[in-house]
Amino acid sequence: MAKYLTLERLGQSAIVTLKNAPANLLTTESLNELATTMRSLDADPAVRSVVLTGAGDAFFSAGADLKQFASGDAVEADKVFDAFAGALRSLQQYRGVTVAAINGYALGGGLELALGCDYMVAERGAKLGLPEAKVGIIPAAGGTKTLADKVGVSWAKRIILGGEVVTAEKALTIGLIEEVVDQGFAKIVAISLANKVANQAPGAVAAARRLIEESGNLTLAQHLERERAAVRQLIGGAEQIEGVNAFIAKRSPSWVESGDD
Fold first, then answer.
1. N or C: which end of the chain has fewer CB within 10 A?
2. pLDDT tens-digit series, residues 34-53
3. Does the keyword Cytoplasm apply (predicted)?
């Protein structure tokens, strides 16, 4: 049984809740638990989406437990960074959809985990930032890239170099998050968004996700070739045939049945 998170199932969604009171700090152990949990969910075809949130009302996660860096031991620090890398890979390689439900503060490594999800919902009153430079380090779980990819270089510099912590409302205006909701509703709205993937064909979701994530590194011509190759693999498959026939018949598709053929 996991010590630093809880796992719930709701239909075809799983809710993973970070649990390390009071601030849901991230340690090597908690990050390894998250990676193991995500790999397990990825192997379960009954789970189409995952919501990541934090226990309590005040913190999604305040980031890494700084006690792990207090001695300045680079070898020990590397163990933490490796655990962050494993947790982020498990989120990014998950075949379905991941949604971060941000309740309260999402700082440092906590925000970096949220940035590893497909999209983010934050409650009014939530605060987001990457303040690592204040303690003499920098984001080392992808934050210097993932934040810049979402909000642009100028805002990434303002948040990382200036240590600015932004409100949920400001995060929405700069494109850091996708929706602001009332307090207490982040998880509910995130589950609703996550459940939408159940209407989509699993193979199409996985293929489209890969293409979207690769798009920034390709020219349009290169991307068109990747798209055509991907859609050729889908054409004639059980999901494609089921999806089209369901649409013509004006009924809901049965992805589980078609995926078992």
1. N
2. 999 999 999 999 999 999 99
3. no
pLDDT tens for each residue of 63-119: 988 888 788 888 888 898 999 999 999 999 998 999 999 999 999 999 999 999 999
Would you state the structure tokens that stand for residue 227, as one six-digit string? 């798209």
Report the pLDDT value the prediction gives residue 256, as an integer from 0 to 100.
64
pTM for the whole structure: 0.89
Residues 6+ apart with CB under 8 A from 188: 181
Query: Residues 153-182: pLDDT tens digits?
Result: 999 999 999 999 999 999 999 999 999 999
Beta bridge partners of 100: 52, 120
